[in-house]
TrEMBL record:
Residues 250-420 form the Lactate/malate dehydrogenase C-terminal domain. It is found in: Plastid, Chloroplast. PANTHER family: MALATE DEHYDROGENASE. This is Malate dehydrogenase [NADP], chloroplastic. Homodimer. SUPFAM superfamilies: LDH C-terminal domain-like, NAD(P)-binding Rossmann-fold domains. The keyword Disulfide bond applies. Residues 101-247 form the Lactate/malate dehydrogenase N-terminal domain.
């Protein structure tokens, strides 16, 4: 267990309650987990309006009362002095109850973009205070501390707590959302089976931890690759959480597909709707141009180059990730974070009439004949309550059926590779070289 100490300025703000004072006392023990309390508790509202300004000679910031008198808070530092903006505190009265969001791989590239969007209110809304629970490992604990510092320095009014830790059983305690990003990327010469096994272990462990300590209705979004099968492993290890609550991120693929169709049609991408990604987040994924729409019209009516749709378009979406790695030297991070935001927003806001979104979900009674007991990307709608329903009347022609079957076969093979992690017996791994590739790899 990592043990380190973080020295924190002593804070004796009159506006913090006694438990908060304790958490901010002069030394915080950084073991598996420690807490940065960024703001005073909700409803800890002082009675007169105060704003803060930082004095120029490195002395404690000065609290200014609205009757003009000035009070120096001698032992008050940084963010903890700057939180008593009563205007913001008044707003808290109409805020919703705080929610807890766990993020794994929180010191990684994707998280570095995502956390600041979450904290800003751009994801859950401007009236939703949040607590961030950041999961790392012993190798990243220092980096996580840096992440927490940057979050502090951003002064997000909605960000009420940041915890960091290395033990999922602590970090996932009571969380309502778990965004599982941390996973080992494949290295050169590595077999997919080895990656499935290494990352699979992470998601088996995290599934167990979620099962034990998370909110019983926690929503889980698996991003770490191979995300479909990792999501399956995770949900199999969390039998007390509804399987329906687990998602694999295929929203990036949906966004990429919309972008390509918009470019070809010469329209802005907000004109593209009803975009389904079927199957696995891999080169076998099927971006569905048959049912997608541009300006409300079937894509095939707007883009008459059907050969491009079947070949150029499909391949460009399947291989977009790899092309990006070639150009950028690393896998997509910013656009992935944006797609995570989109995926969550699609669950917490009602889906526009007639439209749908793609997400990898547990196959359990689906109307498309996809094998049961997989995590498979399909078209879904939400009422905005965090839940979703499958869209059940999407047309599937022979072209789609054949390709969907290929992605299904790949997921069934991946599932066999991780049988030891899902409780399905002895693993047997037989993945062909091409089918082991992530998007864009050849
Ligand atoms: N589904 C999708 O659309 C996409 C998925 N991805 C996937 O998301 C994942 C994260 O990507 P990104 O943030 O760019 O990666 P980074 O390498 O920047 O960060 C990933 C984090 O995962 C953790 N990690 C790495 N190896 C291991 C391991 N062996 N065991 C446990 N944790 C490990 C590390 O955190 P720590 O040391 O704290 O554990 C690391 O900080 C990758 O698997 C990537 O393939 C990426 C893009 C799109
Ligand atoms: O291939 C990767 O590791 C990144 C990825 O999933 C993508 O960009 O779609």
């Amino acid at each position: 267990m990592a043990m380190a100490e973080l020295t924190t300025p002593k804070t004796t703000s009159p506006f913090l309650d006694s438990s908060s004072q304790l958490r901010l006392s002069s030394k915080l023990h950084l073991s598996n987990q420690f807490r940065h309390l960024l703001l005073p508790p909700l409803h800890a509202t002082p009675s007169s309006k105060i704003s803060c300004s930082v004095s120029q000679n490195n002395q404690a910031p000065v609290a200014v009362q609205d009757n003009g008198s000035v009070k120096t808070k001698k032992e008050c530092y940084g963010v903890f002095c700057l939180t008593y903006d009563l205007k913001a505190e008044e707003e808290t009265k109409s805020w919703k109850k705080m929610i807890s969001i766990a993020v794994s791989g929180a010191a990684g590239m994707i998280s570095n973009h995502l956390l600041f969007k979450l904290a800003s209110g751009a994801v859950f809304g401007p009236d939703q205070p949040i607590a961030l629970k950041l999961l790392g490992s012993e190798r990243s604990i220092q980096a996580l501390e840096g992440v927490a510092m940057e979050l502090e320095d951003s002064l997000f009014p909605l960000l009420r707590e940041v915890d960091i830790g290395t033990d999922p059983y602590e970090v996932f305690q009571d969380v309502e959302w778990a965004l599982l990003i941390g996973a080992k990327p494949r290295g050169p010469g590595m077999e997919r089976a080895a990656l499935l096994d290494i990352n699979g272990q992470i998601f088996a462990e995290q599934g167990k931890a979620l099962n034990a300590v998370a909110s019983p209705n926690v929503k889980v979004l698996v991003v770490g690759n191979p995300c479909n099968t990792n999501a399956l492993i995770c949900l199999k290890n969390a039998p007390n959480i509804p399987a329906k609550n687990f998602h694999a991120l295929t929203r990036l693929d949906e966004n990429r597909a919309k972008c390509q169709l918009a470019l070809k049609a010469g329209v802005f991408y907000d004109k593209v709707s009803n975009m389904t990604i079927w199957g696995n987040h891999s080169t076998t994924q099927v971006p569905d141009f048959l049912n997608a729409r541009i300006n409300g019209l079937p894509v095939k009516e707007v883009i008459t180059d059907h050969k491009w749709l079947e070949e150029g378009f499909t391949e460009s979406v399947q291989k977009r990730g790899g092309l990006l790695i070639q150009k950028w030297g690393r896998s997509s991070a910013a656009s992935t974070a944006v797609s995570i935001v989109d995926a969550i927003k699609s669950l917490v806001t009602p889906t526009p009439e007639g439209d749908w979104f793609s997400t990898g979900v547990y196959t359990n009674g689906n109307p498309y004949g996809i094998a049961e007991d997989l995590v498979f990307s399909m078209p879904c709608r939400s009422k905005g309550d965090g839940d979703y329903e499958l869209v059940k009347d999407v047309e599937i022609d022979d072209y789609l059926r054949k390709r969907i079957a290929k992605s299904e076969a790949e997921l069934l093979a991946e599932k066999q590779c991780v049988a030891h992690l899902t409780g399905d017996g002895i693993a047997f791994c037989d993945l062909g070289p091409v089918d082991t590739m992530l998007p864009g790899e050849v």
